[in-house]
Amino acid sequence: MRGSASVAKSAPLPISGFIEFLPEQQLILQEFIRRIRAAYELHGFSPIETPAVERVEVLTSKGGEAAEREIYAISRLLGQQDGAEASDSNLALHFDLTVPLARYVASYASQLSFPFRRYQIQKVWRGERAQAGRFREFYQCDIDIIGREQLSLLADAEMPAVIYDVFRSLAIGEFIIRISNRKILQGFLRHYGVDRDTSAAGLRVIDKLDRHPPADWNKVLIAQTTLSPDVVERVTGFFFGAGGATAETLQWLKDHDANADKDFALGVEELGVVVKAVGELGVPETHFKIDLRLARGLDYYTGTVFETLLVGHEAIGSICSGGRYDDLTGFFADEKLPGVGISIGLTRLMAQLLDKKIVKPRASTPAKVLVTSLDKKHLPDYLKIANALRSANIATEVFTEEARLGKQLKYALRKGIPLVIIAGDQELSQGQVQLKYLTEDFAQKDVEEIPLPEIAARVTEKLRVLGLCGIAW
């Protein structure tokens, strides 16, 4: 009997760490990307896209052994074949967008205009253990400003200005941008006799102190670093003593004993320039603050550092971070190219916002209107109505299956389509349609009679009045 041989079926399970959103969630993700892109371009950043794969030696140029453990190598399923390039065996998926940027800038330096302002929104891959808020495939949304030999501190100040515009546009709640300068803590520790290696390890622990109650900071630093108890007392005293408004904190830093260290003094000076310019760029002080505990764990950063938190949801962690680095392309070229940048881990952010119900999906379709079908003979009329709405840039779906009107209305309700058009023999013979704003009880008071020539204008106005022109969350 034909077809009698059974075929083993694979379980349709998603791969751990590789997230798949439902349509209503994906719509929000895409709208986030659109708004982030718009904010980046508003500040004059140009888009680039680099390949998903890079040569292994490129990816390991800055990350070292820690990065190597997370890099996904790629290979052909059946191995090297005749005619295949030998270099194919030395490729891997990129684990961030900064290393590819370094390679890109080194490759095209003669064709780029400096300072080079780029944004990049792409997926990256990391082979780390999948857990809540951690993924092995995720979107990053980065911007960087790269200078040639030098880069003004005003570039650093632009980062909080962009962050401010991005998160106001996303409308996910109040946020605060934390700002500091790594030179301050480095100089502070050196002033009290801490060597470079101990300082670097200490900064990584200091950067995570927010995970513990302030009363435990001394115990954490003593347990997780080789800092002496006397230095630990000075460090925590430094953090507790630096509270207050921006101007007060800067003055307190200038008066501090550690100001005798050249790096400390330079860090304080740079921080003062940056926060002054941040205010001049239109970011209110309600949305940024100096936080000297901020170190960013990566030794990669050499000056200004940033981190953004959602007020009331600090447990989510940083929703946007970054900082200043001295030389982007040292591994690829002799020319010094300093830069500053920030990154939004968008997939992680989206997952957290959905989990905390900070964003709540409204619709599983971009369609704002469903044209119902009451009689197949009127299908040409329904298609003309849909075309008129689409010509007015109104996302529209036509219900083409045979079903009772009640079923069609429930279909629209389930997908989150707010408006439906109903037209049968009577309405079409009179040159009009019914427009219904869909509510849970299908209340008849929400029905309007609209002449056919006015459909697009009246639907546009209805969507505006109801506040449904964009995606609500």
UniProtKB/TrEMBL annotation:
User: What residues bind L-histidine, as annotated?
Assistant: D96, L97, T98, R126, Q140, D144, R296, Y300, Y301
What InterPro entries has UniProt attached to this entry? aa-tRNA-synth_II (IPR006195), aa-tRNA-synth_II/BPL/LPL (IPR045864), Anticodon-bd (IPR004154), Anticodon-bd_dom_sf (IPR036621), His-tRNA-ligase (IPR015807), HisRS-like_core (IPR041715), HisRS/HisZ (IPR004516), HisRS_anticodon (IPR033656)
* Annotated keywords: Aminoacyl-tRNA synthetase, ATP-binding, Cytoplasm, Ligase, Nucleotide-binding, Protein biosynthesis
Q: Where, per UniProt, does this protein localize?
A: Cytoplasm
Q: Where is the Aminoacyl-transfer RNA synthetases class-II family profile domain?
A: 29-366
Is ATP-binding among this UniProt entry's keywords? yes
Entries under CDD domains matching the protein: HisRS-like_core, HisRS_anticodon
> What cellular component terms from Gene Ontology apply here?
cytoplasm
Q: What is its EC number?
A: 6.1.1.21
Q: Which domain of life is it from?
A: Bacteria
Coiled-coil region(s)? none
Biological processes per GO annotation: histidyl-tRNA aminoacylation
- What reactions does this protein catalyze? tRNA(His) + L-histidine + ATP = L-histidyl-tRNA(His) + AMP + diphosphate + H(+)
Q: Would I find ATP-binding among this entry's keywords? A: yes
Subunit:
Homodimer.
Tell me its family: Belongs to the class-II aminoacyl-tRNA synthetase family.
Could you tell me which NCBIfam families the record lists for this protein? hisS (TIGR00442)
Return the protein name: Histidine--tRNA ligase
Q: What species was this sequence derived from?
A: Candidatus Thiodictyon syntrophicum
